[in-house]
Predict the structure of Type II secretion system protein N.
Amino acid sequence: MMRAVLWLGAIVLAVALTVLAFAPASWLGDVVERQTGGRLTLGDAQGTLWRGSAFIGGAPGPGGSVTPLLPGRFAWTLSPLALLGQVDMTLANPLALTQPVKLSGSWSQWQLSPSALLLPAAGLAGLGAPLNTLALSGDMRLSWTTLGLARAPDGRGVAVDGVTTLELNDMGSRMAPIKVLGSYKMTMDWQGQQANVNLKTERGALLLAGKGSLNQGRFQFSGTAQAADGYEETLGNLLNLLGQRRMVDGKKTIALEFK
């Protein structure tokens, strides 16, 4: 009887290891969808959980059509030691990442190596309203220092330690009367699940500035928008859509408030 139990246990273990060894890459896509409420997914996933590739897609909501958000395919390798609690993952995409990214750590704490992600603004329309209405154009670059990541104590969300910088270059919108509105930089200094946000204009006709915070997914921001000298009349209608006008130092300014 004992010998039969041992043989059965060995067979079950062999089957389990075989399933894990050839686990399809689509399993990872299911995880991404659950964590993002279906707004992000892995499209055309190929290979296995341990070595595969896919494109990153977005959808307006669960069950919506999937649109590629980033150029190229992301290829990953994940060490099987993850089953024992040692995470060692490499992610590469020459068209979207300036250099491969390495994620290492345990089941609850990780470190993400520095890199930058190139984001074509047009792809954001795949996330739905209001981005699909604005029909943004331009190039975005999200860069980061070495980031420390950890599962939040309550098990909800991830705590981040480090700095991320979003550069928005030559941004435009189909709702704007001119092709290029300007270039901007947003810096996020992460401390746990909260980040201090700072926005400034690098150059352009539409001047944006302000400060805020991102706390457990809730975005709060207080800033201003105004037209550069010579563009007051051209951007008048667009500014009216952004918010309420007020006078600051004799110049018409729009208050940008998100709470």
Observations:
- The longest strand covers residues 158-173.
- The two ends are 67 Å apart (CA to CA).
- The helical segments are 2-21, 26-35, 131-134, 236-242.
- Residues 115 and 230 are 38 Å apart (CA to CA).
